[in-house]
């Protein structure tokens, strides 16, 4: 009888080691898969429109957990005993990597959608940018659909890689949102060129000013951002859009030489208000200078008669 080249008793240690290693790989792989069957996405409400947002903190934790799973899977993928499970390991490496990338992009799209939703859903800016408002309306409908689908599926992995929906739709939505944002940036630049003091305020503040421009009284909270020490303006009691005077933080009031009407774009009538404020202040300074040469001039009298940047009682 021919003698075996590799006696079985010599191969047994290697066979046992391989079996133990493969079992260890199988257990770790099954644990990763099992863990992800229990991980669901968490949602939060947006205004009164329902659950249209991913919860930021919870989603960040899911992304971190995906990275941890990827470390385990990459370790299994580099193990020389992984042959029986190689295809499944590679599949889950792809699933975890892709899901993590999708969730990161999802949050980027979400943040941009929330920012632009405040601009293009209602408000005055949507009327001035009708093409972009229409583009955003299409984006908005798509966003609502993907969030409804996500709430129905729930499972983080299945939502992200169960089909091609998220991989195809999110890049498209991001592209469309960036086009809206680019047009909006150009629009804000035009307004700043007309009224350069808008360069002093942030984009969100400027969007709030422009978005509420149909109500002239909403400018009150932004005046200190665009004027030097003009804290309020005084409106006519009956003529809603007529400005009569400017009021400082010290509660000093300077009546305008000529009333300013809040008609047309806010950037235009704010320019008129700035010009009239300068003219009115120049008139006050001129009157104060003339008072110096009057016989009844006193320093205290000047302070009482003219604005001097000191606090007065209301």
From TrEMBL:
<dbReference type="GO" id="GO:0005874">
    <property type="term" value="C:microtubule"/>
</dbReference>
<keyword id="KW-0966">Cell projection</keyword>
<keyword id="KW-0067">ATP-binding</keyword>
<comment type="similarity">
    <text>Belongs to the dynein heavy chain family.</text>
</comment>
<protein>
    <recommendedName>
        <fullName>Dynein heavy chain linker domain-containing protein</fullName>
    </recommendedName>
</protein>
<keyword id="KW-0963">Cytoplasm</keyword>
<dbReference type="Pfam" id="PF08393">
    <property type="entry name" value="DHC_N2"/>
</dbReference>
<keyword id="KW-0505">Motor protein</keyword>
<dbReference type="InterPro" id="IPR042228">
    <property type="entry name" value="Dynein_linker_3"/>
</dbReference>
<keyword id="KW-0969">Cilium</keyword>
<dbReference type="InterPro" id="IPR013602">
    <property type="entry name" value="Dynein_heavy_linker"/>
</dbReference>
<dbReference type="GO" id="GO:0007018">
    <property type="term" value="P:microtubule-based movement"/>
</dbReference>
<dbReference type="GO" id="GO:0051959">
    <property type="term" value="F:dynein light intermediate chain binding"/>
</dbReference>
<keyword id="KW-0206">Cytoskeleton</keyword>
<dbReference type="InterPro" id="IPR026983">
    <property type="entry name" value="DHC"/>
</dbReference>
<keyword id="KW-0547">Nucleotide-binding</keyword>
<keyword id="KW-0677">Repeat</keyword>
<keyword id="KW-0175">Coiled coil</keyword>
<feature type="domain" description="Dynein heavy chain linker">
    <location>
        <begin position="14"/>
        <end position="288"/>
    </location>
</feature>
<dbReference type="InterPro" id="IPR042222">
    <property type="entry name" value="Dynein_2_N"/>
</dbReference>
<dbReference type="GO" id="GO:0005524">
    <property type="term" value="F:ATP binding"/>
</dbReference>
<keyword id="KW-0493">Microtubule</keyword>
<dbReference type="GO" id="GO:0005858">
    <property type="term" value="C:axonemal dynein complex"/>
</dbReference>
<keyword id="KW-0243">Dynein</keyword>
<dbReference type="GO" id="GO:0045505">
    <property type="term" value="F:dynein intermediate chain binding"/>
</dbReference>
